[in-house]
Every structure is written in C-alpha cells, then in structure tokens.
Specification:
406 residues; 44% helix
C-alpha cells in the first residue's frame, strides 16, 4: 500500500496539481478567481472574497491567493493559516478523502489516475521488497567483516567502537555496527556471492561521487545501519581515523528526514530528541528507550514530517535535548553557548506547534556544562541521563529561565 501512496503522490505532483491549478476558475467558480503573472515564478490566482466566500469589509481584489508553488489558499490578514486547494475541493464536492477527489477528476477529465492494482504498483512493490533484502544482506556482510576481518582498518574500527566510544561486544552486535572494506570488495561480494546487479546496489546504497570515486571503505569504514521504526533505510558511514570533516557520509538514497532515526518500531508515548545518530545509539546501548535523532541541531523545515509521523504513531510527549556547545568570551575563556541552544529549542517548539497549536507536552533538558548526550552518558552513565530527562523543564519555563539570565 505504501508503494501505491508513493506513486499516487508522484502523480499528484506531476498531473493532478498542475491540472487543478490550470482549471481553478472552473473547479471553484464561486471565488471569482483572476489569474496574475501567468508563466512566471509568481504565477497565481487571486480572488476578491475571503476563504469562507464572505466579502471583506474593505474591498480587496487580492483578498485570497492561490500560488502555483504550493497549491494552498491563503487569505490576506491571515497569511500563516493556509488551506490546501485539495481540501477546499473535497469540501465543495462532498468527498471524504483525496482518493475520491482524484477519482472524480480522473473520470471527468480523463487524467489516467494510477490504480492500486496496476502493473506499475506491483512492479514498485517487488522492487521495494528486493531493495529491503539487499540492504539486509549488506548489513549482514558489514557485520561479518567487523567481526572477522584482520586488516588494520578493521582493527581500528573495532578499537574505535570499544575504546573510544565505550561499546561492549554485546552492544556492538545488538546495534549492528559493521566494517566496510574497500568498496570494490563490497561490489564483488554483492554481485558474485549474493547475485545482485551492480545497478541494484547503486540504487539502494550508492556511494560514488560524480567523478566515480568514494571515501566509503577508505577513510569512512564504520557502517551504522539507519533504522527508523524497525525499517532499515540505508547506512551512515563514519571515519574512525580522525574527526576531519565530513565525519559522516550517507548513501545517496538515504532518507534522513521523514522519520526520526531510532524511532521505536512499536512507537513510544515519550521520546527524547537528540541531534546526532551516535547520541541516540549511545543512549540505546545504555538501556534508555525512546531516544531518537534528527540528524541536525533543530526540528525545522522538512524535519517537521518526523514529528507528524511520531504523533500519528502515539507519541504524546517530546523532550528536546540539543547539544550545549561552547563559545569564546571576550576574555578568551570558553563559556556555554546558551543563546545558540535557546535558538534551536525555539525553532523546534515553533515547528511542533505549527503541527498542533495545542500540543504543550514539550520539555527541554538542562545541561550544567557544555556537552552532548553521547559525551554525557559516557562520562556520567545512563542513570544520570535518565534523571536529566526526568528533570527536563516545560519548554516555556526553560525559555523564561534562559532569557532571564541575559
């Protein structure tokens, strides 16, 4: 079913949305739309009435606007509360869901909407299943290499996990860390032993740059399986020889923004949101459930969907735990950069509130010195981090305290 939804969304972007925009005047005649700037990036429809079809107190020929860029209806004076044109159409036509709307459009205007049982959907389902199997085989190969390879790079990778990061052998095996040999060896194994096509490997886990080269297996030898809600989506590859940037490389097909990294397969009523994937894995290794990562400093932009998925999966409380970095004071001393952290917290809170304005179960952890969750747990232990989460402040109290210190 997910494959069909992906195909339907693609059809929506390519066919349905452009058609609806071009025929907006016909589909929603009551608004009296007039088109402006046709053929330019500012292409839009404007209407003299409000979104509820009432007339404004002061006449305005552009009271309601629909832009070709996002297919949403916005009203002057209430610009931050857009409504999708599809939702307006469903209400106008009496449809319960967008599938009914698109079926009606397809039948009336011959748009050739893809059907759930179409050959294209079945092919997509088979390709997705094979890709999932390929990634699982690849993870098993990386794990085998970490456990059995005697090369110097493999030894450095094992040493990094055990000595520098403090993982036990049991934790390494549970978290499915792996070692990546030269990528040419990976290609040979997957194509000759596992009988995959190289094109399949490149599509599922491409690592080559535009010049046909890759650092994966050379400088970046630690394979970290990227698992979200129980699904292996790809890999992060980390260098263990130094902290030179980039420390991490992701395979090109990896989607890091639709679902929180490390989000539990069965969902979680409470989640703690940290920045880095290794922060989340260190917490998991310490026996702390529900710690997820956003792969960045704040929940914003496309990461909004991560929150939407979590809320739909049963999450009812979110604890924000961004890093507390240090900055240099005027006298040259290193001091905590509370301003940077406060900014990240506020952006995250605004994003969550944009999804549900009444959602107020948002908390923020308080660090007593510059650190991050990974370092905090390795220095003080899992119990100390659990206490940190339990002592987290309501977001508004954290903001008040930080602003009061200025």
């Amino acid at each position: 079913m997910n494959e069909y939804l992906d195909i339907l969304k693609s059809w929506e972007r390519r066919v349905a949305d452009p058609f609806i925009f071009e025929h907006l005047c016909e589909l929603l005649p009551a608004w009296g739309f007039r088109r402006m700037n046709q053929g330019t990036p500012q292409d839009r429809w404007v209407s003299p009435v409000k979104m509820d079809l009432s007339k404004p107190k002061k006449p305005n020929p552009m009271k309601t606007v629909v832009s070709a860029m996002d297919m949403k209806m916005r009203e002057q004076g209430d610009w931050n509360n857009p409504v999708s044109v599809a939702d307006i159409l469903m209400k106008e036509k009496g449809f319960d869901n967008v599938y009914q709307l698109y079926s009606w459009l397809s039948e009336r205007y011959h748009l050739d909407m893809p059907m759930p049982d179409s050959p294209k959907v079945k092919i997509a389902e088979r390709r997705k299943a094979r890709r999932a199997t390929l990634l699982e085989d690849l993870m098993e190969y990386f794990c085998w290499c970490l456990a059995n390879s005697s090369t110097e790079k493999a030894q450095k990778t094992r040493s990094y996990l055990k000595k520098e990061r403090g993982f036990t052998q049991e934790q390494i095996e549970k978290l499915r860390f792996g070692f990546v040999p030269l990528w040419s060896s990976v290609v040979t194994f997957m194509t000759t032993k596992k009988k995959y096509l190289k094109e399949e490997l490149d599509e599922a886990c491409g690592v080559y740059s535009v010049d046909g080269k890759t650092a994966v297996g050379k400088t970046h030898t630690l394979a970290i399986p990227y698992i979200c809600a129980g699904v292996l989506k790809g890999f992060l590859f980390r260098r263990v020889d130094s902290d030179d940037k980039p420390k991490y490389l992701a395979n090109f097909a990896l989607d890091r923004r639709s679902v929180f990294f490390n989000y539990p397969e069965q969902g979680s009523s409470v989640i703690a949101v940290v920045e880095g994937e290794m922060d989340a894995l260190t917490a998991t290794a310490a026996g702390i459930p529900g710690v997820v990562a956003i792969g960045g400093s704040e929940i914003a932009g496309e990461r909004k969907h991560q929150v939407e998925v979590a809320l739909a999966s049963g999450t009812r409380s979110i604890i924000l735990c961004p890093d507390l970095d240090s900055t240099t004071a005027e006298d040259g001393a290193a001091v905590p950069d509370h301003a940077k952290r406060l900014k990240a917290v506020m952006h995250s809170v605004h994003t969550i509130k944009d999804i549900d304005i009444e959602f107020d179960s948002i908390y923020v952890t308080v660090f007593d010195e510059p650190t991050d969750p990974d370092e905090f747990i390795r220095k003080r232990g899992g119990d100390a981090f659990i206490k940190l989460l339990r002592d987290a402040l309501p977001w508004w109290e954290y903001v008040y305290n930080m602003k009061s210190k200025r």
